[in-house]
Design a protein that fits this description.
The protein contains four helices and seven strands; from the N terminus they run ββββαβαααββ. It is an alpha+beta fold. It has one domain: Ribosomal Protein S5, domain 2 (2-Layer Sandwich). Strands 1, 2, 3, 4, 5, 6 and 7 form a seven-stranded mixed sheet that branches. Strand 1 and strand 2 form a beta hairpin. It is globular, with a radius of gyration of 15 Å.
């Protein structure tokens, strides 16, 4: 069985980190822009316990994505292919985008609810040192979102902001930053 999912990128424009003892409650408050571009994940279940992740044609360690996969399906193997035209390490939420798209595929393959995919992707971002608000910023499904309570449901809350972006120009300055 092979499953495909898309998840947009996310730019945190206003960011206030909020740390709590549990990863589901940890996150950030702020405002973000959801991109039209993002990650497309293709996931196929394997007959062994190996998790292999390839990003833009290059095999990757992908610790955030692998953490989400193993939390959803411990002991199960998957071949993961992620295609993302956004530059990595430049503030576009690509680890969240790729991880959430992959987690949605794995949840589908395993017959799980999408909310578990969201929780696993958000937790993986927190535990592995990725973003603190990108997954929750994607949940309202609008171009601009406000994270008014840090974390993901039932702890966090993100709401749509009624702003329409007709055109967005973004510049990348400087080298990538590893989070």
């Amino acid at each position: 069985m092979k499953v495909k999912a898309f998840c947009p990128g996310h730019i945190s424009c206003i960011f206030a980190p909020c740390h709590h003892p549990g990863p589901l409650a940890t996150g950030s408050k702020g405002l973000g822009i959801v991109m039209g571009l993002g990650s497309e994940a293709y996931v196929a279940k394997r007959d062994d316990d190996i998790v292999k992740v390839t990003i833009n044609g290059i095999e990757s360690d992908a610790p955030v994505t692998k953490h989400a996969i193993t939390s959803l399906a411990p002991g199960k193997g998957f071949d993961v292919f992620i295609r993302c035209p956004l530059p990595q390490g430049q503030g576009f939420g690509t680890s969240a985008s790729g991880t959430l798209a992959t987690a949605m595929c794995v949840a589908s393959i395993m017959g799980m609810d999408d909310s578990l995919a969201v929780k696993s992707a958000h937790t993986a971002e927190n535990v592995c040192g990725g973003g603190l608000g990108d997954v929750s910023g994607l949940l309202p499904g609008t171009a601009v979102t406000a994270r008014i309570r840090e974390g993901v449901p039932p702890f966090g809350e993100s709401v749509p902001v009624d702003i329409e972006l007709k055109r967005l120009t973004v510049a990348v300055l400087g080298p990538p930053i590893s989070t």
